Amino acid sequence: xxxxxxxxxxxxxxxxxxxxxxxxxxxxxxxxxxxxxxxxxxxxxxxxxxxxxxxxxxxxxxxxxxxxxxxxxxxxxxxxxxxxxxxxxxxxxxxxxxxxxxxxxxxxxxxxxxxxxxxxxxxxxxxxxxxxxxxxxxxxxxxxxxxxxx
Length: 150
Prior knowledge:
Elements: H1 16-21, H2 26-41, H3 45-57, H4 69-74, E1 79-85, E2 89-95, H5 104-110, H6 112-126, E3 130-136, E4 142-148
Antiparallel strand pairs: 1-2, 2-4, 3-4
C-alpha cells in the first residue's frame, strides 16, 4: 500500500513535486510573513495565525512526535527538532530564518502559525485536544511546548 504524501491534503498533489523544485527569492516570503499578515490581521494576528495553523496541522497525517519534522522542512517553516517527550507534553526547538531579523515580540506573533500547525498535527495524531505555546528566550532560542489534555 502506497503512503499518501503528507502535504496532499494542503496542496494539489500534482503540484507538490513541481513546487519543491522551484527556487524562489526569500523576499516575497518575507513580504507575506511580515507585512501582509500584520497589515491584514493587526492585533488579531497571533490568534488568527494560530487558529489557521491548527486547521492546517490537522490535515497533516503524522504517526509520531517526529511526524511534523519533514513537513516543516518541505514547507519552508524551519528546522524542527524534538527536544523532549513525556506522556502529556512534547517540546520542539524551532530554527527559523526569520529568527535573525525579527524581535522576540514580533517572532511570538508571526510564529503562532508554526505553533498552531504543530498543535493541530499532534491533536490529529493523538485524538485529544492539544495546545502549543511559543517560548523565545533572550538568545532568540525558539521552543514550542505542546500539551495534550488527558
